[in-house]
Sequence to fold (565 residues):
Amino acid sequence: MWNQQNTQGFISKKAIIEIANLLNISTIEVEGVISFYHFFHQKPTGKYIIYLNNSITSEFKGFEIIKTTFEKETRCVFNKYNNNPLFSLFETSCIGLSDQEPAALINFYPFTDLTPKKVISIIKKLKNNIPIETFADNPISKIQYVPEEDKTVFFKKYITGNSIKNLKKETSESILNKISKVNLKGRGGAFFPTALKWKACKNNTSSKKYIICNADEGEPGTFKDKALLIDFPGLVIEGMIIAAFVVGANEGIIYLRGEYKYLLSKIEKTIDEFYKNNFLGKNILGITNLNFDLKVELGAGAYVCGEETALIESLEGKRGEPRIRKYFPTDVGYLGKPTIVNNVETLANAARIVELGTNYFQNIGTDKSKGTKLLSISGDVAKPGIYEVEWGITVKELLRLCQATSPNYVQITGPSGECINESEFDRKICNEDLVCGGAIMVFNKFRSIIQILENFTKFFKSESCGICTPCRAGNQILFEKIQKLKKGLCTATDLQEIKDWGNIMKLTSRCGLGKTSSNTFSTAIEKFNDYFKLKILNEDESQNVEFDMENAIQEFDSVIKNNHH
Fold:
């Protein structure tokens, strides 16, 4: 499908029939897969497809004026097929450039720190057929803070092979013990103990096993995995090889989000170098039966594919819908075989544990959170970017390091996490206190909390796969509640219903998206209670609100108008 999209600009009816015949499935199934992913199109697009990030950091940095400038210069409208042979414009969720907003992808080449003047220049060059690769931006990892050398885990000198060379003197059990001693947990947000996951897969007797690197960091505000893929792709690959050594896997896949397509050649070049050095392939480093092959597969724009079973479904060429938890991937995973799915940061950390030894980690972090954590910090700060910090650092210290201006509302782990207020800035980032998957968004006292929540609820409404009712309906209801808040029509009853729906979604949703999408809304009501009290009507006032007929029939009118065109 990527081949068709890249060569034709869309996936035609003819191509759909050919794909269906090739795979011996119906055209409806093929269309179902295509329609699931944001970057696949069934209608012709222009020569240049522009995806403009609409996340909240972009919104506060000038999204609207950039959007207007793109439309004016291209004479196109966003999110519509304009029959323009040169340009197509689409909004998209976070593209991993929150520290360089507003940002866009044009034919998957990144353009950062956009201004109206820069947009005008870009469009002019494209109209003049100047090759896009000659003037696209080359985003760097803005590494803003790293601990002293003896406490750094990730951003220290990397020598290819230094980690996996230790496998000659290790056993699968000894590595599991090391991973367990450091208490390494998944760094994608679930925080499941890595040693337990690896041990479960190791104990499976299947002759075929897989290692999958989850490089689909789609949580808005998160870009720390991208930094590792830019600066240390080899370290991540070594982590995969170590996992393969432990569990007995002989094949691996890096699932790279479509938004990071511009990193593909760099990663594939690193893989080629590993093969040349006998770090991949047969009998790696002369170790009998250590055979491991690796390839990269591209995602196509679906947030839910960050969930491990949805990711596996996507890799199998299906819609990225989360599986029912009848089996864990360590039992039945990719192609029905035992599979390890680990986050980029988790694998890099595992490689450093094997390279540096467990003693190195004992004096870094807290009792239950050893080592360091990578954080992506964005928003109202003077120094947005990547921070490698010791577990146990306080939010207050983080805000000092990134030079936050009048911080009021801090979003931990992105929209699926929780927000905190000023009274909680002494809390610590660690497993024992404030758990953080990797994103921290800082908003000052001048920002509208309702605008933040509207952006988040709109994101989840759009990204829900729709397969389960609690998530599909729940996110729509939360979005409607925020619209009532915007109009000043909310009551205390509405706020309670938001919490009630959040609990229903947590208990009954099929996957993590639905279980966590209400987190921020619910915690915001608690943490900023005084703010919301000023935004709601009392019960007497609510009885006097006139019925808004125009708004009530707006959706009906739009359907009628569209049917007449």
Observations:
- The chain has a mean pLDDT of 93.
- The chain is about 40% helix and 15% strand.
- The chain has four domains: 37-134, 144-361, 374-444, 449-540.
